Each structure stands twice: as C-alpha cells, then as structure tokens.
Amino acid sequence: MKKYLAVLLSVIMILAVLASCSKSGNGGGSNKVTDLDDEYTTYVKELAEDVNFDGMTFTLIGKDDGNFPIKDEETGDISSDALYHRQRDLEDIFGISWEPVKTEIGPDAADQVINEVMAGGDSYDLVHGSTQTVGQSVLNAGVIINVSELEHVDMDREWWIEAMQTDYAIKGQTFFLTGPIVVSNYRDTTCVLFNKKVTELYGIADADLYQTVKDGDWTFDKMFAVASAIPENPGGNGVWRYDEPAGYDFILTSGYRITKFDEDGAPYVEDKLPVEFSNLADKLCPVFSDDSQTINVKYRKGDEAEKKYGVEELQTLFIDNRALFRFTTTEGALNMRKEDVVFGILPYPKVDDTQKNYCSYARMGMDSAVYVPRTIKSLELTDVITEAMGALSQKYVKEAYYEKLLKGQSIFDAESSEMLDLIFSTKVYDLIALYSGADYNQMGDYLTTLDNAIKYDNGNLASGYAGSAVLTNVFAKQLVKAVEKMDS
C-alpha cells in the first residue's frame, strides 16, 4: 500500500510541476522564449552571442496606431499581440528595454526625427512609418543612413522585401527596410473581391473564376466578359458590374512601371506619355466611366454619394450585394469580412494575354518601412536589433496577420487562400510615392492625370501628362540631390 501511495504522490508532484510550467510558459501568456526554439528564435539567439546589450534602451518612434511595432501589453487582438510577443522575446534574449515614442500622425514622427538629427541628438534608434508620409520626408532631409551600413541586416533573408534594393533604390542605394517587420506589409496589397451572392444570382460559377486565374487567363477582357452576365444598370436601382476602380493601380498591376531609372540609378518618369499608359486608358476608361456599369468614382462620399446612390459610403453597395467586383487591398478584404457579405478573392487582372505574370501592387500611401537615423547612440545596437526584429516578425507577425487574420478570417473558401498566396508572391513596388508631389497629402498632378484618364476621362491624357511629368521630374531630381548630398 505504501508503495502505491508513493507512486501516487510522485505522479501528483509531476503533474503539479507540469501545471506550473504551463502557467509560466507560452500558454500562460508571458511568451517567454522556450527551450524548444524554432529556426527564427535560434537565429536571433545566435545574433545575441556576439553582443552585450544588457540594460540598454531601444527607442523607436512612429505613429501610434495598430501598425506601431511596440505594444505595451497583450490585448487579445491577434495582430497587436504578435508585436507584443516579438518585443518580449527581444527583451529576454538581448536584455534590452523598449522606449516607444508614439506620435499622433506620421509626419510628426518625421519632423521629430529631422529636428533631432539636425541638432545632433541621438534620441531615436529606429523610425517607423509610411514611405509616403515619413520615408519621403526623412530621405529628402538626408537624416537616415544607407542600409549597406548595417552589417548584420541580411537583405537576402526571407523577412526583408528584395524590391527595396531595386524598385525603391536611388542611385543603387537602399534606405528603406520592409517586410513582416511592419504589419502594413500584409495590409497594403491590391486584390479584387467578387460578391458570391451576385455570382449565384447571375449564374457565374465561382470555381470558373478561380480556375481562370490558375490557368493564367484572368485578363481585363475575361473580367469584362464575366461581368457582361449582369445587365447594365442605367437607373441605378439594380446591380453594378464594378465598384470603385482604382485608377493608376491598373498601370502597375498590368506589369508596367511608372518609375524609370537612368544608367546611374536615378529615378524619373517619361517626359512623353508612354503608349502602354495610353492604350490601358483607352481600354479601361469606356467601361469604368460608364455609370450603367460602374459605380462612378467621382462620387466617393458625403452628400454626393448619398445623392447619387442613396448611400453614405460606396462600399455599402458591395455589402448590399449590388456590385459584382470590388477593387481594393488585402486590408479592405479583412475589413469587408466584418460585414454581412460573402465574397471571394482574386488578383488584379492581366492587361492581356501577353502579360507573363500577375502583378499585385503595394499601394502607395499604405506601405510602411523602418528607417535608421544618422545620429544613433549605437550602430551595432540598431543593426542587430533591427535584424532580430525582422527574423522574429517572420515567426510572429506573418503567422498572426497573414495566416490567422488574412487567410484564417478574411476568406470563405480554400480557393481564396490559394489566391492570397498568388497575390503576395507577385507583389510589386514603385518609387512614385516618394516624388509624385511636393505635398505628401496630395498625389500630385501627375498621378491625378493618370488616375482620371483610366477611371473616367481619357480625352486630354496626352496633353495633361506632358505638363505634370515635368513637375514630377523636378521632385525626382530633388530626391536624387538629397541622396548625393549624403554621399558628399
């Protein structure tokens, strides 16, 4: 009997220990690094072997929003908690503490960093923000460093977007770092939603749409042919074929580039209207300017939308099953999932059968990055921690936002999951966000000209393009001069 009691007591003690471990480990929410490391944690621990950051503070500045890389506590929000878990691991591994500096809007972060660097201060170790609102300003001011100065940041690893070294480079120099280190990497990418209630109503087979994409035959002509199953809607009381086309997005998703680079790697736009842009506008404008087919983008919100369509926001028409196709982003898909509408996800169409691959655009103004100020207290600290953040983001942020939110909560069928993989594997970037206008709040005349020509008026595209291209190239040259000044 004593023998059995002894065994029973031993079992109870083991169970107690296991229960205690469960409460103090990942399952209890503290997210301590476990003994069983994954490849990303192992990589970060190897980075930590050759440095000693114990007791050091890492200060990151950026806009206070859901995309800000530092979170104070777990909240139950999948995306936010992923950022919290990432920084807890970095604290545990490197012995650092975080000091977040959160601003109200993106330009505030840029202004604070510019003022700090110009004054010779080293208060900020890393800057986070939109490439258009923050990146443009800090680069033009010459207050950030070339990524090549970061010895440990390995741009060939899967957690860094390679296009920053090509499509976002200036005279061969890279200044921006992006990837899963910023949540917007999974929010900014173009996609097309189709309303499953509408396809059912008009006898359009969802499976055929997906198969067309898989076969490489998803083109504008194919989209127009599919949409023709829906009668035109001149009175505005029925169903539209298209909801809010995205204008110049179509140039980039058709495989063209707005930004060109000269032999020295300096960016510019063509002085004369590229024939590809003109042909695309001629192809799309007749469809997207037709109120009987398309919810006209000239009436976006407020009284105009209410007066024309009887709704405050045009997306309500898609939600109410009154539009077949909606042109949006992956964030738009996630937001639409919260509404009472059933949809599928597709990439943007190819321009025609000659386009080799689908292209999904990282939409201007939504894509974000991190930047390293010229005056920092320790280059080694910023270098190593930035690389470690990138690696752990592949573990936490990609899993949380891409797998759990986008693929887990924003889709209704397995085919849409396949489409998301295709969309993100064909992502393209364009530097135009950084020099399209002097004021980051405005697209600039150049993009407005392209946008309008594709959406509702291509009659004056050639003449309007030439004048706006001149001014755009002035802004591009200013950007190049800023980079050249940094080298001098």
Short description:
This protein has helices at 2-24, 39-49, 78-94, 106-118, 131-140, 196-201, 206-214, 220-227, 249-253, 275-288, 302-309, 315-319, 330-336, 379-409, 414-425, 445-455, 461-487; strands spanning 57-63, 97-103, 126-130, 190-195, 240-243, 260-261, 267-268, 294-295, 323-329, 343-346, 360-361, 368-371, 427-428.
Amount of beta strand: 5-15%
- Average pLDDT number: 87
Q: Remind me, CATH topology of the largest domain?
A: D-Maltodextrin-Binding Protein, domain 2
Main CATH class of the largest domain: Alpha Beta
- Report, as a whole number of angstroms, the end-to-end distance: 87 Å
Quickly give the CATH architecture of the largest domain.
Answer: 3-Layer(aba) Sandwich
Structural overview:
The chain is α/β, with parallel strands linked by helices and 488 residues long. The chain folds into 2 domains: 37-186 and 366-409, D-Maltodextrin-Binding Protein, domain 2 (3-Layer(aba) Sandwich), CATH 3.40.190.10; 190-361 and 426-470, D-Maltodextrin-Binding Protein, domain 2, CATH 3.40.190. Helix content is 44%, strand content 11%. It is built from 17 helices and 13 strands. It has helices at residues 2-24, 39-49, 78-94, 106-118, 131-140, 196-201, 206-214, 220-227, 249-253, 275-288, 302-309, 315-319, 330-336, 379-409, 414-425, 445-455, 461-487; strands at 57-63, 97-103, 126-130, 190-195, 240-243, 260-261, 267-268, 294-295, 323-329, 343-346, 360-361, 368-371, 427-428. A 5-stranded mixed beta sheet has the order 8-5-9-4-10. Strands 2-1-3-12 form a 4-stranded mixed beta sheet. The chain has a two-stranded antiparallel ribbon with strand order 6-7. Strand 1 (57-63), helix 3 and strand 2 (97-103) form a beta-alpha-beta unit. The longest helix has 31 residues, at 379-409. The radius of gyration is 25 Å and the shape is globular. Residues 1-35 and 438-443 have low confidence and may be disordered.
